[in-house]
Task: structure prediction
Amino acid sequence: MKLISTIFYSIIIVLTLSFCTSKEKITVDLLLLNTTIVDVQNDRLLENQFIAIKGDTIFSTGSMEELPEYDLKESIDLQGKYSMPGLWDNHVHFRGGTDLIGENQDLLGLFPKFGVTTVRDAGGNMTPAVMGWAKKINQKELVGPYIFTSGPKLDGPKPAWEGSVKIENQNDIEMALDSLQSINVDYVKIYDGSLSTENFYSIIEATEKRGMKVTGHMPMSADFQKAVSLGMDGSEHMYYIMKACSPKADSLTDLGLGYGMMENITDTYNKELANELFSELAQKEVYITPTLYIGKVLSQLADEDHSSDSLLNQIGEGIQKTYERRLEAAKRAKSSGSQMREKVSTLAKQMIRPMFDAGVPILAGSDCGPFNSFVYPGESLWGELFSLTEAGLSPAEALQTSMIYGPAFFGMQAQYGSLEKGKVADIIILKENPLEDIQHLRSLEEVILKGNMK
Result:
């Protein structure tokens, strides 16, 4: 009986060992070895790590000491180089009409060269083309960043930009939103070229009822805090939040000065009002996109010579022609003695640190694209991040405005923002530590777009 028992257990052990040795290894498409993972959210480094990628998703990460045995298609020894999530540019434009569709498409490849793997298109006049690019990029048929888009902007009866939807009444609003929902835009962008205050408020109320995200410009006749109370999700640029921080805002509004009030607004900025407003914005999770870098570029436009810019020759002639509009405006402002842009730029930088400390979600956005002179795709997002650190944010905090708050605006924190199992495999690899110095973005060496090395 003892012999039979011994034989039985021996058979079990042999079968178990046979099963274990014949168990198939997990196959991954790309294995990054010996990397330092940059944890932007927690401002820390995880050294001596591996990242396993399967398809367009991170399959697993961990210490090299605990590296599983995988079947591999490709592996790369990064020798301690820094890996972090791809950058998000949360305010870009594709526009200029049908004649410039090709030149706009040519811009797409510039973004990944600077580690920008996702963009938020803030409205233009080539929506079908943009959506077509987004589909091809997602299917890996075209190289470029993943695109979230608002589609055409909503403006008044005389829009500032070609291709915008004209809004004159409530019926127009409902029809416009029906149309935007039918083409599955990611959010709604408001513009203030000729939009009435009443229709501005009504758009916000209508999007709130439909569960659509809404951000954009605000008519200078409107009240920022009322817009927030109605459900506005974000605000582009700093003009409108600045206005809400001046005790003279109401009296200046009554004068009908429009943006002509901005010098007075900057001169009467009140820190106590600002702190109260920042607290409200943080509580209601209203996203602010400062666009500091373009403000700096435009404020110096009349005096700077951009003819030797390294990226200028990668911009199509048609798009370069659109730069003249801003150049002429800058020359007129200089000859009139206006210091509005300079004052707005200076105050905007001063507001960043207290906004961030209050918990206001700040979005890094470059405003690059046709008509915005010498603000180049990819490079300008670096300029925005550099500007945010100059304004007082740490490198980690500045990076959070791109890769943490960008996904958060769309409620996509589960898919983006860190290098962990289940996250989208948009990864950039740097030679130097970006948490030590934001300028180390310049040491960018490799970009992985949805699992594909570019």
